[in-house]
Specification:
This protein folds into three domains: 4-57, 434 Repressor (Amino-terminal Domain); 70-172 and 307-334, Rossmann fold (3-Layer(aba) Sandwich), CATH 3.40.50.2300; 174-305, 3-Layer(aba) Sandwich (Rossmann fold). 42% of the residues lie in helices and 19% in strands. The radius of gyration is 24 Å and the shape is elongated. β10 (255-258), α11 and β11 (283-288) form a beta-alpha-beta unit. It has twelve helices and 14 strands.
Amino acid sequence: MAEASIPNKRGKKSRRVRLEDIAEKVGVSLSTVSRALTGEKGVRDDIRQRILEAAKEASYPMPVAVAGKKIVIAASSAAMIDYVRNQFTLHVLEGARDRAQALGLDIATRPVADAKDEQTVLEEAATDPDVAGLLFLTLDDERMLAATRTFDKPVVLINGDDPHMRLSSVTPCNRSAAQLATDMLLDLGHRRILFLMRPGRRTIERRQEGFWDALRHRGITPTPQMTVTVDDWLPELATQAITDRIARTGLDFTAILTAGDSLAAGAMLAIQQAGYRVPEDVSVMGMDDLPQAEFLNPPLSTVHIPMREIGMTAVELLRDLCSGVPALPRRIELACHVVERRSVAAPAAGR
């Protein structure tokens, strides 16, 4: 939170003025002060004026108004593919647009397939005075991240992060989310659990790390045989991977945790096609909680990822960075929770 010095009677700096000080002086809530200073809607004109005057008297660093400005969302190829296939990107964008509208901001979405596309977006945004900042959606390619660090307007990553913490980001708590799901399976008595994933992105690798965390906490050493990988998020690839596993080693597992709901749908089909039942013979747990999860047979137990809230929070963070108040880069991770349906149960007796 930004602060400004309040001089004491001897003219020396004593402490920093906070938003709470302004709120107390004007007699309004902290959220009202925040909305007034950032130009957000929903504050009466007379109250806004009193807040601005109080902030000026206290030498509070005034944020730059961003209402009426434009935010560019640069969506990576992975995000656009997901937009077509599933609803994760769709819900993130809906949340971002809703919050931007409430803040008086416009949003423009641009696809970014490669470094050339990214450079074009950066150049256009840099020369457009109406663009306040950039949101990069589902991007963690190191070469592309490097180009954004020299951009002279604020940048926030959505569903991705900068390992060097030079850029701010908003993601779900991927590692703890996977640990929650694994803990649930372990609590039910499962010990032979597969983790089905598509590698290549840090956010997904953190889900694998959460899986390992839970196993190690229970004294189980993760092995390479416990991870099954596919080349894409298509359900049919998950079906083929689990079918091949059963053909090769038999049913040497009692549960599957997948890094995404689409892979869970394919895994369930493979188990059923092999003549086994979900969850009586094998439990299946997904991650994302996409709308179609509850319509699978059986309905899929999964980890709810707050997709809309991710988009909303990213816009709020970018708004704060655009306000002109100095702030360090930060990584915001939103909490997730398990949604229990009918695809998970205790392992069958004797297994």
